[in-house]
Amino acid sequence: MDTPRSNFLKTQIQADLDAGRSDCVVTRFPPEPNGFLHIGHAKSISVNFGLAAEFGGQCHLRFDDTNPEKENQIFIDAIQEDLRWLGYEWHGEVRFASSYFEQLYQWALVLIDAGNAYVCDLDAEEARAYRGTLTEPGKDSPYRGRTTAENRDLFQRMRAGEFADGACVLRAKIDMASPNINLRDPILYRVRHATHHQTGDDWPIYPTYDFAHGQEDAIEGITHSICTLEFEDHRPLYDWLIEHLPVPHRPRQIEFARLNTSYTVTSKRKLKLLVDSGTVDGWDDPRMPTVAGMRRRGYPPAAIRHFCEEVGTSRSDGMVDMAMLEHAVRGHLNETAPRAFCVLRPLKVVLTNVDETSVLRIANHPSDESLGHREVPFGPELWIDSDDFRESANKKYKRLVIGKRVRLRGAYVIEADRCDTDKAGTVTTVYCRVIENTLGEDPGDGVKPKGVIHWVASHGAATAELRLYDRLFNDANPGRAEELLSVVNTDSLATIVDAVIEESLTNAEPEQVFQFEREGYFVADRHAHSNATPVFNLTIGLRDTWGGGNG
């Protein structure tokens, strides 16, 4: 498996190893099971799993499931599937924060007994007023002076389910005047009568992420807790809790800049808005930046990993151009995707000097012989793309024109003689002649074809639905828009229901990617594609044409 480029995280981990602070690197990927993984998670995954692999260590998968109302088994299953699809395997069994609920509860009692935590009855609005601001210190809660015995009794009654949601919380007793708001007596436990997907109704109280996270790391022996920069201000609390509890191990938290890509949002709230509003067709819509969406779009996992590595890891926030990911996808598929013919806008061609059908042997890749060859039917009637024919054109037009020659990809040179049109003047049929002795070589009369076009023989064709996907947003930074839906690209999906494909493509496996020659890279939809109803999604165009459509 590939490993990330050199970065400051490697330097710090190596320093810890050299100093004897660690002897085996143990990292973790700790998603909350309340949504689908996205491109930002892919970066975090590549960092945590990559570092563990490079230093010969372990990476754990742990679900931080401390918020039961928003969590679901669907997300747990999807996250595991996405990780494996990306090419990663975690060490040992899948871990859950909920497995440690009893230990976390006992440690909360340790804080209470040491005078480092108290039960507070302030409601949410009152707590905000007492908390202070970035420029003004907070004020002590009137319940901060409760005795140890009183706090222990109240917390045990919270555990017993005697209090309603929101009636009280357990808070750490640190410093209400701290310049770091995260240290102003943060909440450690809330009353929450909610059924948990792992523990059922066993717990009427749940730990906060800030309280649980560091202790989970300590229980699992995590040496390096790699987080994104938004957790930097939380690190003093992370360390305070570790110092004030009898944990079996002391992990080290290090932060790096999260991945932000242009024309993308990764906020779960905003992604959910796209789904709930019907702007996209679910979390795995190919326009979504979710791992499931990129998979359905036909993005190869190797290209996603390569992109995450090329981006690098730093301490500086910035915006990465989405074209960089698209370049990685295009480069990978150029080398690995077999070629095939598909006509998006069919126009009939009659070859007036061809009487019989035949079969041509065409390479599946121009430079990789290991991808083999395929047999392609050829006959007197073909389909070409309507954009590849004009009755007359200037010299810059390199396709089929009356009186001019063009090569059929992998087949013969043909010359157009005339065409039929309907009452509206639309061309319906083009009549051409095959130039003899031109299979695989230029004509011997010195008149070379002007260009090359793709085609599909009528008797060896099938109809397919093509879904042409483009970027979901017109704005490079849609997250800043006051109304997210106002910057949605209304042309992000176009559907063609009567495209003509090689009949062999009906046997394509779901998720198999092809280069439809001269059109782009297409993937057989993992859900909708079948032999009876072929459905292909546009993965990416043959070149970067953003600004005029991608593909």
Automatic annotation (TrEMBL):
Signal peptide: none
Superkingdom field: Bacteria
Principal location: cytoplasm
A Pfam cross-reference name: tRNA-synt_1c_C2
GO CC aspect terms: cytosol
Motif ('HIGH' region): 31-41
Domain spans labelled Glutamyl/glutaminyl-tRNA synthetase class Ib catalytic: 25-329
Catalyzed reactions per annotation: tRNA(Gln) + L-glutamine + ATP = L-glutaminyl-tRNA(Gln) + AMP + diphosphate
Entry's Gene Ontology BP terms: glutaminyl-tRNA aminoacylation; glutamyl-tRNA aminoacylation
Annotated ranges, domain Glutamyl/glutaminyl-tRNA synthetase class Ib anti-codon binding: 337-434
Keywords: Aminoacyl-tRNA synthetase, ATP-binding, Cytoplasm, Ligase, Nucleotide-binding, Protein biosynthesis
Keyword Ligase listed: yes
Sequence ranges assigned to domain tRNA synthetases class I (E and Q) anti-codon binding in this UniProt record: 452-525
A single MF term (Gene Ontology): ATP binding
Residues spanned by motif 'KMSKS' region: 265-269
Binding residue positions for ATP: 32-34, 38-44, 228, 258-259
Binding-site residues for L-glutamine, renumbered to this chain: 64, 209
PROSITE patterns per UniProt: AA_TRNA_LIGASE_I
Compartments (UniProt record): Cytoplasm
InterPro entries (UniProt xref): aa-tRNA-synth_I_CS, Gln-tRNA-synth, Gln/Glu-tRNA_Ligase, Gln_tRNA_ligase_bac, Glu/Gln-tRNA-synth, Glu/Gln-tRNA-synth_Ib_cat-dom, Glu/Gln-tRNA-synth_Ib_codon-bd, Rbsml_bL25/Gln-tRNA_synth_N
Quaternary data: Monomer.
NCBIfam families assigned to the protein according to its UniProt record, in alphabetical order: glnS, PRK14703.1
Protein family per UniProt: Belongs to the class-I aminoacyl-tRNA synthetase family.
PANTHER family documented for this protein: GLUTAMATE--TRNA LIGASE, GLUTAMINE-TRNA LIGASE
Annotated protein name in UniProt: Glutamine--tRNA ligase
Protein source organism: Luminiphilus syltensis NOR5-1B
